């Protein structure tokens, strides 16, 4: 019994030492490594969120303050996120860290989308919003949660303006939660089939220059995402949420297929869920078959290319963390 106890103690010590060593290795790897987060939800602050509610009296400012600190601690130099007009503008006015845009459509029944004064903008309204250059992205797309396909005529102005202004669009491209797990009061018409990337083909035929990135690659619509990426070289992807919540046995084979098909240079880093940036960084770092160069490309280089960042902006990002 004593020997068994000793072996167990040694085993736990080895595990503990290995974890510390692995953490030190990752921290060392991340030194001077800028990161771009391609998926952040811009929302109001919540009074009951104990992570940040004691930071400032104004709860919206408190949330932004915590988010900026968290990103700075994790070498994130640029964040692409979406929200309603009020909060998208608030975030870009607060800090240059954020590259923000509209979630589309917003939903008046969803608390996270407050204030959703207008669920759909028309073409002239969108042109007025985006012509200033203050907002620079669109997404996350929520038409599947709203219960309509991407070909719905109310979405046509978004595709048109995005192509006209060369705006990157984040498309929810995973099956997502099962319908019975979705809050029916908030999203009564939720339909996961509308997130199938194949449904984007008519949109891309009409607007062939749309700059799209598919969110949550690795999940239910991976094959469809892969086929669409083969057809359109400007389409990229990210593996947020799926890589954190789904078993590795589910998403890793799909990720390997992406690289085997020669499309690994279109994979970008993203976090999606509030406060999970560190976890998602660890997920990428711990994919043992990726080379160091591929990991660095995912963290920053692929997104910088997708976003057409200038050499001066890239230099600024690298200097920011040195």
What's the structural blueprint in terms of helices and strands?
Blueprint: H1 2-30, E1 35-41, H2 59-73, E2 76-83, H3 85-94, E3 98-104, H4 123-130, E4 137-141, H5 143-146, H6 156-164, E5 168-172, H7 201-206, E6 211-215, H8 222-231, E7 236-238, H9 242-245, H10 248-260, E8 267-268, H11 277-285, H12 292-306, H13 311-321
Parallel strand pairs: 1-2, 2-3, 3-4, 5-6, 6-7, 7-8
Helix pairs in contact: 4-6
Structural features, described:
The protein has helices at residues 2-30, 59-73, 85-94, 123-130, 143-146, 156-164, 201-206, 222-231, 242-245, 248-260, 277-285, 292-306, 311-321; strands at residues 35-41, 76-83, 98-104, 137-141, 168-172, 211-215, 236-238, 267-268. The longest helix has 29 residues, at 2-30. The termini are far apart. 44% of the residues lie in helices and 13% in strands. It is built from 13 helices and 8 strands. The chain has a 4-stranded parallel sheet, with helices on both faces. The protein has a 4-stranded parallel sheet with strand order 5-6-7-8. It is an alpha/beta fold.
The gyration radius over C-alpha positions equals: 20 Å
Structural class: alpha/beta
Strand sequence of the main sheet, in spatial order?
1-2-3-4
Number of separate strands? 8
Low-confidence stretches: 1-5, 7-21
Query: What is the string of SSEs from the N terminus onward?
Result: HEHEHEHEHHEHEHEHHEHHH
**Distance between termini?**
53 Å
The helicity comes to 40-55%
Q: State the helix count.
A: 13
The overall pLDDT, averaged over residues, is: 93
Strand content: 5-15%
Q: Any idea what the shape is?
A: globular
Largest beta sheet, briefly? 4 strands, parallel
């Amino acid at each position: 019994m004593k020997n068994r106890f000793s072996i167990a103690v040694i085993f736990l010590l080895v595990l503990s030492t290995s974890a510390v060593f692995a953490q030190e290795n990752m921290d060392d790897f991340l030194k001077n490594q800028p990161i771009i987060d391609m998926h952040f939800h811009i929302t109001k602050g919540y009074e009951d969120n104990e992570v940040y509610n004691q930071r400032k009296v104004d709860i919206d400012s408190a949330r932004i303050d915590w988010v900026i600190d968290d990103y700075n601690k994790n070498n994130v130099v640029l964040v692409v996120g979406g929200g309603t007009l009020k909060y998208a503008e608030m975030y870009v006015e607060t800090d240059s860290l954020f590259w923000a845009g509209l979630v589309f459509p917003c939903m008046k029944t969803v608390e996270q989308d407050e204030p959703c004064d207008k669920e759909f903008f028309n073409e002239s309204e969108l042109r007025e919003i985006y012509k200033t250059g203050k907002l620079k992205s669109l997404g996350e797309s929520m038409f599947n949660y709203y219960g309509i396909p991407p070909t719905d005529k109310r979405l046509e102005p978004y595709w048109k303006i995005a192509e006209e202004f060369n705006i990157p669009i984040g498309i929810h491209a995973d099956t997502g939660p099962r319908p019975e797990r979705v809050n029916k009061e908030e999203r009564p018409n939720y339909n996961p089939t509308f997130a199938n990337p194949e449904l984007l083909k008519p949109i891309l035929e009409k607007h062939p220059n749309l700059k799209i990135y598919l969110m949550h690659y690795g999940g239910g619509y991976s094959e469809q995402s892969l086929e669409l990426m083969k057809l359109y070289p400007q389409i990229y992807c990210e593996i947020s949420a799926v890589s954190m919540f789904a078993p590795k046995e589910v998403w890793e084979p799909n990720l390997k297929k992406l690289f085997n098909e020669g499309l690994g240079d279109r994979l970008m880093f993203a976090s999606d869920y509030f406060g999970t940036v560190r976890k998602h960084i660890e997920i990428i770092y711990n994919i043992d078959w990726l080379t160091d160069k591929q990991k660095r490309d995912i963290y920053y280089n692929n997104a910088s290319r997708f976003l057409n960042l200038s050499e001066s902006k890239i230099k600024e990002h690298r200097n920011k963390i040195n």
